[in-house]
Amino acid sequence: MAEVSAVSHKAPIASRYYEPLTGLPDGHIVRVYSGMSKLRTDAENILAHLKASNWEGNQWVVVLGLTKNAIEKLVNRDIHGGICYLLEWEGTVGVLKIMPGPIHERITTDLLLTVHDQTREMGTPRTDFAWGGSTTYNKGRKGKEADEIFVPTSRRLLGWPTLVVETGVSQSYPKLKEVVKWWFLNSEGKVRIVIIIVAKPKWVRFERWQLAPPNAPTPITEDYIDQLRQQGSNIPPLVTQPVITQNPYSVEEVTVTAAGVTGAPMTIPIQALYDRAPSSTEKDIILNDSDFTFITRSAFF
Question: What is the pTM assigned to this prediction?
């Protein structure tokens, strides 16, 4: 796979429709479900390989023939053995993202803490929002969990989040871009922002994705995306959007290495985050160089 930093982020996603197996890396495991013990062995093998290869490689298991009972067991974390994973399923097909290790988790957690600190500094009551790692969202015969979600109180406990964070190793980047579509498509645009975090031994990449306006030209062009990316804080559409009008694109990209930060700042529009007009003391979340240095403090050693 090409380096993530070399990919053109102005290019529109090829299809707005979502397929759960699209984008999976070479070497992903495919198994017909026959019990939790074999899934646990698969996950342990993936973790051993990732550790031996400096956290690069495959982190996905495709599970065929899932029953309703098996899905419930996976949601309830019945694999055991201390395996951390996130579940996605559609019908009888499941996809497990095996969490590679503490560094990826700490990067996600430190992003959460940084956003949380800025909201508190603005005087936003802590009762106005909730974070919810690995919360399960169902839509008909399919469902998914994310590394982290942000839900404003106005949407109640299990309403669609406004912000989703998806984290993975660099080989997972094509799949993570596909996952962006899952959140926008199934929430009909109620998810306003998806942040992708891709971690490699020498760098960490952050991308902020959102939907283009529903009146965007069809087909959407790189020039039009470039115009959107130049618009100040670039608030995502604050309306629901059926899939036929959805065009996800990357608004901002930040890369962090041991030598420094490029691409900052990254902006999270406060109105999109809280799904309401900001108060007189609230302003957009701005993640600058020092914020990203803190967020990635566990990545380089």
Answer: 0.93
